[in-house]
Amino acid sequence: MAIAVTPKIIKVLGVDDHELVMSGLGSRLDHENDIELVGGLPDGEHVIDEVRRTGANVVLLDLEMPGPDPFEVIGDLKRMHPEVRVIVLSAHVRDHYVDAAVRAGAWGYVSKNDEVDEIINAIRRVTKDEFVFGSLVLERCQLIDRTTRRLKTAPVSKLDMLTPRETQVLRMIGRGLGRKEIADELHRSPRTIDNHRASIMRKLNITDRVELVRYAIREGLVEI
Fold first, then answer.
1. Taking the model in full, what pTM does it have?
2. Fewer CB within 10 A of the end CB, N or C, for the chain?
3. Is residue 223, in this structure, part of any structural domain at all?
4. Residue 180 DSSP class
5. How many CB atoms lie within 10 A of CB 33?
6. 78 and 184 in one domain?
7. Residue where a domain stops, chosen among 114, 140, 166
8. Are 163 and 136 part of one and the same domain?
9. What is the per-residue pLDDT across 136-194, written as a single tens digit (0 to 9) for each?
């Protein structure tokens, strides 16, 4: 008599400040026998603690959130929980974002506009140590080899000189946020944001805020 084998449950932690995204995904995952949404966070502040508490195998991480820089969060997870697979789930699909996410330690990058079945398939695949890029990512980005679905070597850019936090501040400047708004969203002081902005301008050889906004848009750091 054959003995039924219970499939190992993939535990997923969602990190996104859009509640509808997580609730919708959670409702869909309720119908999957091998995947469970074990928790949700509105930002990356307590991801490490929540991974430990829930035993999550996969973290679905948005990029546009208050709190810690998401690329730093990915790096921290890779260092402290190398067995956990991070998938970026973002509305923003740009070469620079994908490159930064993979370099930080992400195992996948999918768009919020990808089919839900594709996102669920990505969750399963990363637990088998596969790098996964969603259809819209493959369609829109130039740095991904279409045959191997691996990231090509990105060309050297001035953006590579920026720290993850500086890149995040530049994105927010590009969105038109002021220093106080950026400080509030990142839970940092306005003086700290001023220091980041000064460093960004020095590294990019840009002398005014308007040109910073134009640069962020031109480099695809901002959805328009």
1. 0.75
2. N
3. no
4. H
5. 8
6. no
7. 140
8. no
9. 888 888 777 766 667 776 666 777 788 778 888 998 899 899 999 999 888 889 999 99
